[in-house]
Amino acid sequence: MKTNNTILGVLGGIAAGALLGILFAPDKGEKTRKKIKDKSTDYADDLSGKFNSAVDTISKKYDELKSETKSMYAEGKSQLEDTKKELEKETERLKAQV
Fold first, then answer.
1. Residue of 56, 25, 58, 55 lying closest to 39 (CA atoms)
2. What is the pLDDT along the chain (98 residues), one digit of tens a residue?
């Protein structure tokens, strides 16, 4: 989470710096507004790409965890059944001794 906050902070700082640079540049209003629009579109596209990348990463991690959990469950169930069979055999052996 700290990395995400750092990235967002850096992006916010870059955006604020670019906006201030454009606002104080000696251009006409129409040209300045166009620059602001273009920059904001670029930042929105970049942020959208990073968001989609993060969602993809989270989805992959979720799928991996789900698969690993199913595998561990199956292994645990198998071990439990083996232990149950061993206990039943031992119980029969002890009954036969009595």
1. 25
2. 577 778 778 877 887 887 777 777 776 778 877 887 888 888 888 888 888 888 999 999 999 999 999 999 999 999 999 999 999 999 999 888 87
Q: How many Cβ atoms from other residues are within 10 Å of residue 27's Cβ?
A: 13
35 touches 21 (CB < 8 A): no
Q: How many of the other CB atoms lie within 10 Å of CB of 38?
A: 11
What string of H, E and C letters represents the secondary structure of 39-70? HHHHHHHHHHHHHHHHHHHHHHHHHHHHHHHH
Q: Rounded to two decimals, what is the model's pTM? A: 0.51
Whole-number Cα distances in Å, 43 to 2, 33, 64, 65: 21, 15, 32, 33
Query: In Å, what is the CA distance from 10 to each residue of 22, 37, 41, 73?
Result: 18, 20, 17, 43
